[in-house]
Amino acid sequence: MAAVAAAEEARAPAAAASEGETQMVDPAAVEDNDGRSSSSGSSGGGRLDSAEHGGQGEDNGDGSSGWSRSSLVKKSLESAHATVPFPDASAPWWRKLMSFAGSGLVIGVAYTDPGNWATDVAGGAGFGYDLLCVVLFASLIGMLVQYLSLKLGIATNRDLAMACHDALPHKVNVMLWLVMEMAIAATDLAEILGAAIALNLLTGLPIPAGVAVTGVDVFFILLLQNERIRLLEGLVSVLMLAIFVCLLYVTVLAQPDAAAVFWGFIPSGSVVTNPDELFTAIGIIGATVMPHSLFLHSALAQTRNYPRTVEGRRAAVKFAAIDSTLSLIFAFVINALILILAGAAFHAQYSGTSDLGTAYQLLAPAVGSQAASTLFAFSLLCSGQQASLIGTLAGQIVMEGMVEIRVRPWVRRLLTRLVAMIPAIIVTTIFAQSASALLIISQVFLSISLSFILPPLVYFTSDVRKMGPAHVNSRALTVVSVTVTLLLTALNIYVMTNPSTWQL
Fold it and tell me: How far is it, in rounded angstroms, from Cα 341 to Cα 379?
């Protein structure tokens, strides 16, 4: 997606000229979330008051007045909005890139959560390395939609939730909000269950008790978010690195066949001709591309204090896209390692392994090291804990932006956490032996919910009235985005009309 960003950057001046615009007219300057506009030569801290413009939804004179209403919420993630310094135009490129470093890894958390573990283990154990091509395909889709998300946030000063509120009919927006709240509850359910399973494997703590223990991460959110978004990004980066190191070590112990791994990235006909393999492939795609990450990325991109000008936004999109792409490549490597590990350790003798607890028990004898099982469970714990942090933050963005529910931050985050914790405790108490199955079911629902939010995202970023000529999607990018949306929707329709899919 970094290459796409570069191509669109080269296209932008010509697009602006074709619209009869001056290149340096900022398509969102007078509707900046913080009520201020920027001079074209300023750095991130050089913005000037322009309260007379009245916030969002004003006609800028550049054709970007495509919003039907204006949000009461003027800033996405208000306490962290524009708090991360961004170098001025004369700074070297690597300093500008480092300003965005970390935000992409936060998004990458959604691509390595416990739901991914469950589907990757099932795929590797059942079909060896055949589904590595699906992991790659799902990651490429993720890079595309995350690019659209970050570009929406930077170009319009709106996160995806605010954009839905400001552009869609009220009833449609409320319907989307309800679907997204259920999706975030399903996300939190998966993260809490994953961490609780890991605690159970490591310490013997009952899963319902583990659910309650895992829920305390809301207090970390309260501590880290308020104008300290960099601390949150740093914590996530450390956890992601720990997961990678542990998985790499255990995978090396499993001694996978390098040639077979290579051919696994080449699509094979069995992926679509074998119903069981196809079902698992759909589960991997559903577990990889997560709807809450789209809301979160469009908000996190705005925490950087880049100049709110056409040139400033263009630079921000460029460096945010590079950071996002590199981070999702790292997340792809982690996902691939999980599937490779499962293929090497389980496919030959334990091909029916799909439960994370069973995988933990079989891993040590399969690779000849007790440390392998411990590191596997520790990595799962890190995955569930960091993903739970991110799910809570995404819940805040959706609640604030789509329906403008304004309550104290700690109340809002506590409500978001309880929506997931209470069902998780009840379900795991009744069905304690089915926690991994619940993980996969939650991923199926998340995949279905993605079909509800992708069309608005593609529509917003393809509308020159909303994005301005400098940032609107190119025709080629629009075609690719619509094709991906239709493909994912078709897969989800297939899931819903084939009950056996829920037995992934």
Answer: 13
Q: What is the pLDDT of residue 392?
A: 73
- CB of 34 within 8 A of CB of 74? yes
Amino acid at the residue 447: S
Half-sphere exposure at residue 113, Cβ-oriented, CA atoms within 13 angstroms: 36
- What is the DSSP secondary-structure string of 143-159? HHHHHHHHHHHHHHS--
What ranges in 255-369 are assigned the alpha helix state H?
258-264, 270-273, 275-288, 291-300, 310-346, 356-367
The predicted model scores a pTM of: 0.83
Mean pLDDT of 461-467: 93
Mean of all residue pLDDT scores within the chain = 79
- What are the Cα distances from residue 45, in Å, to 74, 81, 88, 308, 367? 18, 12, 9, 10, 54
pLDDT band, residue 39 (cuts 50/70/90): very low
Going by C-alpha positions, the residue among 136, 326, 336, 325 that lies closest to residue 248 is 336
> By the 8 A CB rule, do 484 and 145 touch?
yes
Task: Please name which of 1, 317, 323 lies closest in space to residue 145, comparing C-alpha atoms.
Answer: 1
Q: Amino acid letter at 345?
A: A
Read off the tokens for 98: 């480092």
Of the candidates 212, 213, 235, 237, the residue with the CA atom closest to the CA atom of residue 224: 235
Alpha-carbon span 102 to 104, nearest angstrom: 5
